[in-house]
Amino acid sequence: MRRMTARPGNAHQARLLTLLRDGGPNSRAQLGDQVDLSRSKLAVEVDRLLETGLVVADGLAASRGGRRSHNIRLNPELRFLGVDIGATSVDVAVTNAELETLGHLNHPMDVREGPVAVFEQVLAMAAKLRASGLAEGFDGAGIGVPGPVRFPEGIPVAPPIMPGWDGFPVREALSQELGCPVMVDNDVNLMAMGEQHAGVARTVADFLCVKIGTGIGCGIVVGGEVYRGTTGSAGDIGHIQAVPDGRPCACGNRGCLEAHFSGAALARDATEAAQQGLSAELASRLDTNGALTAVDVAAAAAAGDATALDLIREGGNRTGQVIAGLVSFFNPGLVVIGGGVTGLGHTLLAAIRTQVYRQSLPLATGNLPIVLGELGSAAGVTGAARLISDHLFSPA
Amino acid sequence: MRRMTARPGNAHQARLLTLLRDGGPNSRAQLGDQVDLSRSKLAVEVDRLLETGLVVADGLAASRGGRRSHNIRLNPELRFLGVDIGATSVDVAVTNAELETLGHLNHPMDVREGPVAVFEQVLAMAAKLRASGLAEGFDGAGIGVPGPVRFPEGIPVAPPIMPGWDGFPVREALSQELGCPVMVDNDVNLMAMGEQHAGVARTVADFLCVKIGTGIGCGIVVGGEVYRGTTGSAGDIGHIQAVPDGRPCACGNRGCLEAHFSGAALARDATEAAQQGLSAELASRLDTNGALTAVDVAAAAAAGDATALDLIREGGNRTGQVIAGLVSFFNPGLVVIGGGVTGLGHTLLAAIRTQVYRQSLPLATGNLPIVLGELGSAAGVTGAARLISDHLFSPA
DNA sequence: CGTACTTTCTCCACTCAGTGGACAAAGAAG
DNA sequence: CTTCTTTGTCCACTGAGTGGAGAAAGTACG
Fold it and tell me: CB of residue A89 closer than 7 A to nucleic acid strand C?
């Protein structure tokens, strides 16, 4: 199939594409109800979209008491690629234009192996998805990386945990390889967009999305749009001081949130506890190198191990204190907790909630849900697909 | 004079009004260069504005090598009233449509006397300004109050330091009394708008404006627009925990920033120090009730008193720690420090800068100016005038 | 099956915002 | 006085968008 290259020619067309993406197939009449245009004008714009091939007419809908309507839908052959590069693994998914996931692959990989090795892996996974018949090619790709990004150019800048990527032209390189438009963003922002598109944040204009994985970051959504800050580092809350004179952090300071709670910190603390004989449950899970992972801690906690539960609770308290400050400052309508440690579940959530509800003012917390993300590892790739679709569905 | 009631009829007219407000008188040709409209269309819109009386043609400008242009300017008889209600004083100013202050009055007053008493004072001050010939009436008024506001309705909600104002219909009441449109906002947001319009933040899209007065608040500007949060309490940073298990705060928690540093806290700490005989300089300034104010501390510091300087430095460190967290989170392009304690000057600023530059990541602080506001007490009233002018200069 | 009613979609004349070129007005430079 | 520049006005034209008429394609009911 020849890949689509058209873009909407004006704001009306862009709006229609978005409606079709988020609301699925629709008749002209239904679209007219949502778009505040006369039927005549609407018909003209729909016809133009049909000409570009971005949308197709596909059969008649059931009658609603009168003439049956023609179903208008986004071209079902369109394919987006969503890529989520985490600190320790890579996710790649294919979606259709409605951002429904058609296939999803995951592969463990250390991002510090550098852009060349990771790109090779991503392209191999994309090829595998293509080979399985899910796509003949891609009309666009979104990609998230675990660090700050100069958004317009799609280039990571000074990323602490992936130094080899500094200045690497991710957008251009991937666009070359795939032969389609590419947008790049911070992985946390993509998670926020994913939860906004298909998860718990569908109806909220202003919210925070805290991702606790190897590190800690926070996606900020203002008026439905991701806020990236002046240099693209907004939401970098891992190095906010959580404990005065606390543990030393890789950044050079002491007491950073990330040094006290994150996937890495939790694994480290649990390993120490196990080696000191504080918990037989944890000790039983030590691997051949005498180390534990955050997943082990979650398992031990689920089995009722007091030490594991304490570690989670303490981490949740630290995190909750920081979030409480952010809630006072930002007054969001929702706080989403996601990332690898979501497996720690209710214990973590309860600790965070306790701190936030106790420390922030009632006006800010009175009607503030604090919930776990509902998409899990699909949030990132869905957000990536959403990112490129927002780009392609805006006027050229 | 008959007050203006017209509003711009479309977005073009709104844009033209804004250009004339921020850029002063202009010829049609110069406006055309800034507005991306054909000369014909521009002439039509200018003519319509002339008809409404919002703008006037006033004389010929000097030639620039050809035919002389007609000066177009905002009607010089338009008058806005800017009101800034602080915790301990009221500021009222008159501006023209270009938001230039024509007259400014200040009156000490405790906001806890309640809306009725404060309104009486505000109206008396407005009448005085009118009587002095600065205005025959007002075309609009902006008013700031020291607490969260339900912005669309212009009603304070659950304001901690002015409980008597909860639910009082400020917008409607003042509009009735003055007979003109009124907009209400948090005083901190108005300060941010003031510095954005005429102060240090003129060219920055995303910035924070920290106001340290009786309490502490923070104005948040995202993409040139004030961000108010879901319930209007965004920027309420006074109750972020700055010191674990610190001083008890009026809000019921311990260690809130406001309990450790603010005009009130500084006065309290200085009074204690003076009474304990730690500083002769401070003791010499005790009033008849044996108390000090923040102004006394500033004076003592200026005189080189070590105790006063220490208090300021410690407060600046606390504040700087909290701001450092906000900088990591928000990645602003500028941080403005303002409010009553601006008199503490460089000592305070240096302490704040030290903490922020030390604790936040280089990417966020690399090019981040942290400066004092340049408008002083005029920031609030200017921001208030700007608020109502933004409202009136937007399409009806 | 025929008639009345509903919903969907198309067609078309009309309005109005906006463009761009021609030209007049007014001044500067020589 | 001529030439050139800048400013502002006029006017015919384009194209976006509207709203009503009516065709197309159904359902409901006698």
Answer: no
Assigned superfamily of B202-372: ATPase, nucleotide binding domain (3.30.420.40)
Name the token pair of B180. Answer: 């003109």
In the sheet that holds A89-95, the strands lie side by side as A101-108, A89-95, A80-85, A140-145, A182-186
Q: Walk along chain A (396 residues) and give the pLDDT tens digit of each residue.
A: 567 778 999 999 999 999 999 999 999 989 998 999 999 999 999 999 999 999 999 888 888 888 898 999 999 999 999 999 999 999 999 999 999 999 999 999 999 999 999 999 999 999 999 999 999 999 999 999 999 999 999 999 999 889 899 999 999 999 999 999 999 999 999 999 999 999 999 999 999 999 998 889 999 999 999 999 999 999 999 999 999 889 999 888 999 999 999 888 998 998 988 888 888 888 888 888 888 888 889 889 988 899 999 999 999 999 999 999 999 999 999 999 998 877 777 899 999 999 999 999 899 999 999 999 999 999 999 999 999 999 999 997
Neighbours of B41 (CB within 10 A): 12
Write down the CATH superfamily of domain B80-196+378-392.
ATPase, nucleotide binding domain (3.30.420.40)
Gap from A394 CA to C14 C1', in Å? 31
The CATH number of domain B11-74 is 1.10.10.10: yes
Nucleotide nearest to B69 (CA to C1'): D7
Query: How far apart are alpha carbons A257 and A260 in whole angstroms?
Result: 5
For B239-257, letters b (16+ CB in 10 Å) and e give bbbbbeebeebebebebbb
CB of A233 within 8 Å of any CB in chain B? Answer: yes
How many interface pairs between A and B have CB atoms less than 8 angstroms apart?
138
Rounded to whole angstroms, how far apart are CA atoms B141 and B144? 10
In chain A, whose CA is at the least distance from the CA of B208?
A329
A136: which residues sit within 8 A by CB, 6+ positions away? Answer: A1, A77, A79, A130
Q: What's the sign of the alpha-carbon dihedral A112, A115, A119, A122?
A: positive
Sequence ranges of the domains in chain A: 11-74, 80-196+378-392, 204-372
Contacts of B322 in chain A (CB under 8 A): 325
User: Which residues 58-117 in chain A show a CB within 8 A of chain B?
Assistant: none
pLDDT tens by residue, B57-102: 988 888 888 889 999 999 999 999 999 999 999 999 999 999 999 9
SS3 for A68-91 is CCEEEEECCCCCEEEEEECCCEEE
Question: Do the domains A204-372 and A80-196+378-392 match in fold?
Answer: yes
Interface of A with B in 149-178 (CB under 8 A): 157-158, 160
- Report whether CATH 3.30.420.40 matches the domain A204-372: yes
**Residue in A206, A229, A368 nearest the CB of B330:** A229
DSSP B133: T
Are B206 and B196 in contact by the 8 Å Cβ rule? The answer is no
**What six digits make up the tokens of A343?**
């497996």
A235 at the B interface (CB within 8 A)? yes
